[in-house]
Design brief:
The chain is α+β, with helices and mostly antiparallel strands. It is built from 6 helices and 5 strands, in the order αααβααββββα. The strands form 2 sheets. It has a 3-stranded antiparallel beta sheet with strand order 1-5-2. Strands 3-4 form a two-stranded antiparallel ribbon.
């Protein structure tokens, strides 16, 4: 069969790829996400092989090395993805039996976990909290104190304070 198709002679299969579903990209949680956490999510999804969701090991150091950033940079990115409901931590980081640190285990919330729990899709209900609008404050100095016509129109009175000069006691 390879004799008939010479272009397939040296192929050994396609490389792995990460699939981001269209419905997932359309959610507000993903659409408003900064580029750093997006890249971190792609790295987490690269670790997913189809049946290991909930056991995705990715330490901060490994993530920082994969994304070519400082290791202190990826910590807030993990928290942001977790806050939006895109990933969840299934097991926290801890020391192993030999005293070596073990990385946290993560689950992608868009897929069922390895133990059969269905995905919760909590990122679908996430909305960005808007900051409350401040009331517009009128300008405080829109009336000139030296303009008597503006004073008469608005009815505002301007009081001028004149420093008191004391008479000298020698007079």
């Amino acid at each position: 069969m390879s004799r008939n198709k010479p272009y397939k002679r040296h192929k050994k299969g396609a490389g792995r790829h990460v699939q981001l579903q269209e419905w997932f990209q359309a959610t507000e949680a993903w659409a408003t996400l900064q580029p750093g956490p997006r890249a971190l999510y792609v790295e987490l999804k690269r670790l997913y092989n189809g049946n290991n969701n909930g056991k995705l090991f990715l330490s901060h150091r490994d993530a920082a090395e994969a994304l070519n950033v400082h290791r202190n940079t990826v910590g807030p990115w993990f928290k942001e993805l977790e806050r939006r409901g895109i990933i969840c931590m299934t097991k926290g980081p801890h020391l192993g039996s030999e005293g070596h640190g073990k990385a946290a285990q993560w689950a992608l919330c868009e897929m069922p976990t390895h133990d059969g729990k269905p995905s919760d899709h909590s990122f679908r209900s996430w909305t960005e909290k808007k900051k409350p609008r401040t009331k517009s404050v009128p300008d405080r100095h829109n009336i000139c104190a030296c303009d008597p016509q503006a004073e008469a129109e608005t009815g505002a009175t301007v009081t001028k304070f004149v420093p008191c000069r004391r008479k000298q006691a020698s007079q």
